[in-house]
């Protein structure tokens, strides 16, 4: 029902359905209510209408006249003024129909030759937004502090876009991952679907996202592992001393720097992932530069340690010959430190945007070149250990330069990389705290099983213990690369969903990625158990080693199963920004429980390598159970609020230095 306002009141613009009218702001009087179409026609001097002429023709069963062929009409009617039809009137009608549903039939006694008013605009005729919105834009779970998607007024209801939805200017930069993310939240929030159908549809969407993220990440980490292993193989063919030196440099000093740099780079993974989900694209480039500055500064003291590696190794008990050869190898790895400092922030920057495939292609091409050049440098040019390690450093720098060129030139990064900024040098102390917590969390995990090997060297038969453990650790390292890929996928998915304000999608992603990684690790463990009597022959022909490996295989299978869960939950922790909490958990479970328990079983109860490994598995199991308990009792709505607070804390505007 329409109400005619008093004649003397001021006018304001208002939209009703597809008509634009001007309505008085004064209170509408009941005695002025118009109860017939005739009364509406007599009161039109208070209303200014825009005639949808093509729709009028359709409602009168007439053939609509194309807009360009209809001549402009000039009307001097005092009661109304008509505007020439717009070429977008049909598109407006289509958009209105997609939002509000089809028009109701026009009454037979309704006049169609004159003006047309949409009488079906009120809130009682308006279906919920999730019914007619595309799934990719459905946002039924509003972000903290956001207004409802529906706002009602005196004249009807108005649709408002969600607070955390993509802005019109930034939709061009959103990729398929963002659309699928919104689709997932819409499916999980659609109460009209049966529970099983909803879970099946959501699982399909999430699996598609995880495969796109995890598969390239696994390839990247596998190739990085192969590059270091190939360098060690080339060095080993030079002689036994060179093999020992390369092994000591790779598994000792180089792993220390790798874990520290990768851990500190995880701060970028948290902030960039949440900023990308919140559509604060310009901040991703700032976080990338800030982390690079911080890691480059950290690389300076590490380079000093590399330079004095020989006396350090002698002090730790290594023979002067092995320490001297290892120092030569480590000297060539000094440029690799700063390649780490540039690569890990770039890698996390691209992962946060679900850009994984380019890094895999770049790493694969670099590996092929690395193998050829390493052969030439080591054997043809005779540069030995120094040449092998220098080629490894150069290969890492090739990866860094290629990825940065992709970032600068790719259209996929045009919103996230806007040039160098002075802001990269601001807030470094606070950023260092988050980076340090990330580094401690990862290093405690990385060094844990390195300590297992060191302790095994103190047993009664160290040669057999070390040989059997090295075979098992090699298989564990290969399978761990798969878990690290799921770790990266979990971190990206959770951080993106929290930044976008999608708590249901974040929680669902955690469940799917954990279950998927667990199933895969169980299958691999079954294969390992079936081949327990044969896997050692890949590395050696000794019967004693084969028997020892067969006895340790059940522990290896249990370790693989735990590694299918624990790294994924660590990735969830990184996505949520829980690095400091997980660091405390790692200290308690690994170094207060795991290592002392392993030493007790291995030496006091004389269980040897199996006892040491069993105790350390106990520490890993305790850590995994704690992370499972904390993760699945998390209030994800609160995590969305924390993500927004974290982004607001780090978001500081500053002028550009170079575009």
Condensed summary:
The protein has 659 residues and is mostly helical. Helix content is 65%, strand content 4%.
Structure report:
Residues 69-82 have a biased composition (Basic residues). This protein has 659 residues and is mainly alpha-helical. It has three domains: 1-52, no CATH class; 194-426, no CATH class; 437-651, no CATH class. The chain contains 21 helices and eight strands. It has helices at 37-42, 53-59, 89-100, 129-132, 176-189, 195-236, 240-277, 282-307, 309-315, 320-331, 334-352, 357-380, 384-409, 428-456, 462-500, 503-530, 543-563, 566-576, 579-604, 608-632, 636-650, and strands at residues 2-3, 11-16, 19-24, 33-34, 150-152, 157-159, 420-421, 656-658. A hairpin with a 2-residue loop joins strand 2 (11-16) and strand 3 (19-24). Helix 7 runs parallel beside helix 11, helix 15 (462-500) runs parallel beside helix 18 and helix 19 (579-604) runs antiparallel to helix 20. The longest helix is centred in the N-terminal third of the chain and has 42 residues, at 195-236. The protein starts with a strand and ends with a strand. The model is unreliable at 1-65, 74-92, 106-174 and 653-659 (pLDDT under 50).
């Amino acid at each position: 029902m329409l109400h005619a306002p008093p004649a003397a009141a001021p006018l304001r613009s208002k939209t009703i359905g597809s008509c634009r009218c001007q309505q008085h702001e004064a209170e509408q009087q009941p005695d002025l209510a118009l109860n017939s179409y005739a009364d509406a026609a007599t009161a039109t001097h208070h209303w200014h209408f825009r005639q949808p002429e093509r729709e009028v023709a359709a409602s009168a069963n007439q053939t609509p006249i194309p807009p360009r062929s209809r001549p402009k009409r000039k009307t001097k009617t005092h009661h109304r003024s008509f505007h020439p039809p717009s070429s977008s009137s049909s598109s407006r009608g289509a958009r209105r129909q997609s939002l509000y549903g089809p028009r109701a039939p026009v009454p037979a006694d309704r006049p169609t030759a004159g003006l047309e008013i949409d009488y079906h605009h009120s809130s009682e005729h308006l279906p919920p937004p999730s019914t007619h919105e595309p799934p990719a834009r459905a946002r039924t779970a509003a972000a903290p502090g956001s207004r409802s998607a529906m706002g009602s007024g005196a004249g009807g209801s108005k649709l408002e876009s969600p607070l955390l939805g993509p802005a019109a200017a930034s939709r061009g930069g959103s990729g398929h991952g963002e659309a699928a993310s919104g689709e997932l939240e819409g499916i999980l929030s659609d109460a009209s679907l049966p529970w099983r159908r909803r879970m099946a549809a959501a699982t399909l969407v999430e699996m598609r996202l995880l495969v796109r993220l995890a598969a390239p990440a696994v390839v990247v980490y596998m190739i990085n592992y192969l590059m270091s292993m190939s360098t060690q193989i080339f060095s080993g063919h030079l002689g036994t001393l060179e093999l020992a030196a390369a092994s000591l440099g790779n598994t000792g000093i180089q792993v220390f720097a790798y874990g520290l740099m990768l851990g500190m780079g995880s701060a970028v993974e948290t902030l960039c992932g949440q900023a990308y989900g919140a559509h604060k694209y310009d901040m991703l480039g700032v976080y990338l530069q800030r982390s690079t500055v911080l890691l480059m500064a950290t690389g300076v003291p590490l380079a000093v340690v590399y330079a004095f590696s020989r006396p350090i190794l002698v002090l730790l008990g290594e023979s002067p010959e092995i320490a001297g050869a290892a120092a030569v190898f480590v000297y060539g790895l000094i440029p690799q430190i700063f390649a780490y400092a540039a690569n890990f922030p770039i890698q996390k920057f691209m992962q946060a945007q679900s850009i994984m495939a380019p890094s895999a292609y770049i790493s694969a091409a670099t590996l092929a070149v690395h193998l050829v050049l390493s052969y030439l440098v080591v054997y043809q040019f005779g540069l030995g250990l120094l040449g092998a390690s220098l080629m490894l450093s150069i290969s890492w720098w090739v990866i860094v330069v290629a990825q940065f060129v992709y970032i600068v030139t790719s259209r996929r990064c045009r919103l996230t990389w806007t040039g160098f900024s002075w802001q990269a040098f601001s807030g470094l102390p606070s950023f260092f705290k988050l980076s340090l917590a990330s580094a401690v969390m990862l290093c405690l995990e990385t060094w844990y099983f390195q300590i297992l090997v060191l302790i095994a060297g103190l047993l009664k038969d160290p040669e057999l213990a070390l040989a059997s453990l090295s075979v098992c650790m090699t298989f564990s390292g290969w399978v761990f690369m798969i878990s690290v890929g799921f770790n990266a996928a979990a971190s990206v998915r959770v951080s993106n969903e929290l930044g976008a304000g999608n708590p249901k999608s974040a929680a669902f992603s955690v469940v799917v990625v954990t279950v998927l990684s667990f199933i895969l690790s169980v299958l691999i463990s079954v294969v390992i158990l079936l081949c327990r009597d044969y896997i050692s022959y890949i590395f050696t022909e000794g019967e004693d080693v084969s028997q020892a490996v067969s006895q340790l295989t059940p522990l290896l299978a249990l370790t693989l199963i735990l590694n299918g869960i624990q790294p994924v939950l660590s990735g969830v922790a990184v996505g949520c920004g829980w690095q400091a909490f997980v660091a405390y958990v790692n200290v308690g479970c690994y170094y207060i429980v795991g290592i002392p328990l392993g030493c007790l079983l291995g030496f006091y109860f004389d269980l040897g390598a199996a006892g040491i490994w069993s105790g350390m598995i106990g520490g890993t199991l305790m850590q995994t159970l704690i992370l499972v308990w904390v993760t699945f009792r998390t209030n994800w709505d609160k995590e969305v609020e924390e993500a927004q607070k974290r982004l607001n804390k780090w978001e500081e505007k500053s002028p550009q230095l170079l575009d």
